[in-house]
Amino acid sequence: GEGEYPSALHLSGDVFEKGKVELNGNADFLPEPHLALLAKIDLERLDLGYFRPLTERYQFAVRSGVFTTTGTLEYAPKKTILDIPELHVEGLAADYLHAKKNTGPTEELSKKTGRVVEEKSNDPGFEVRLDRIRISGAELGMINRASSPEYRLFVKNLRLDVDNLSNQSKDGVATARASGVFMGSGKAQATVKMHPEKKSANLDLQMAIEDVDMKTMNQLFLATGNFDVKAGVFSLFTEIAVRNGVVDGYVKPLFRDVDVYDRKQGRRKGIF
After folding, report:
1. pLDDT tens digits, residue range 253-269?
2. In angstroms, what CA-CA distances link 105 with 111, 114, 143, 251?
């Protein structure tokens, strides 16, 4: 009957050379339209670099990193429940790739993914819970290929802790805390609280980036304003709330001791 798993199930092996996978539980091979199982899953040091061909379809290039996790999966015709107490990622290096225009298949794939995420939000037959996500020693960036010249913004030495992530409103608010070094220069900190009660994204963001050497951002300045800087310090503070598609908050950029060279005029500007 439903919820019964009479057959013992065990699977173990190596994945991507250094990774290991182990599954222990029980299964029912007779229900329609597919088998049912209840099992504990252990994944140890899976190399994220092997997923790059898949992630690049979503404009996310993963260069390196390994992840380890243990969880419980119940997969049945009328319900799917994935419960992960902790997922740990080490040495992640990845970039989001912004291009001028997505190709047709990629754009359609992204739209389909968005629709699936929206449909599964608060779906009682599909539950995903991640109690803790720990990412350490990461470097995450964004490469803008739609600009001239291209530029890359990044955070190094990133630590990201996410607690109580779920697609079910009954599980409450998820919290993410991040810290790192922006452009290899300035201290960056952020806190995000995510509310799953609606199908649209609802969140509260607080972020501070302090004392960044502006010379590290010259490619950005050249792409957006055709100038670069010889000296300067940049900071940014923001608080943003998103509720049902409505964004409220502020973004406050600060500049100090700036020396600007204007490419159009061919000379320096004393005032930024």
Report:
1. 999 999 987 665 555 55
2. 10, 14, 21, 35
